[in-house]
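User:
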Amino acid sequence: AGTMIRQGEKILTHESKADVDGPGISRLITSAFGKDLLPGWWDDLRLKTAYVSDTGRAAALITEWDDFFYLDKFAIDDAAQGEGLARTVWDQMMRDYPSLFWRSRKDNTFNPFYIKEADGFINKGGWTIFWVGETDFDRISRNVKLISDLPADFDEEGHSG
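Assistant: Predicted structure:
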């Protein structure tokens, strides 16, 4: 038996890329996913809102496509897993974005969490596409197609870059 004391982390909300440490976010994502991001990923990101823990150990990046919001990346540092930090970031993001789409690779170990949180999901190609807060089948269908056609952000060949 014992007592675990967690250091609370403040979640900062940024609505401008200029306010976010792009290289730090890129390092977090590369580490969390175990893959290199494609060159220019940060520059090309259409950031709407970034949720970043004050220590930089967690981040969620929201973009806007057409008329819906998309969770582009959700990354938690390996050392922070099990501390409830993912839940804290998720809950803050969901308060601000009650309607949201996102995707992950079918083999993503975080998918059981996503399945519990989502209102719906569908497998398409190598992706599982999730959504919350949307009930219109035509919008869901259209958004699933758009999301499944988005290019990957990682160097899938394993080259550093």
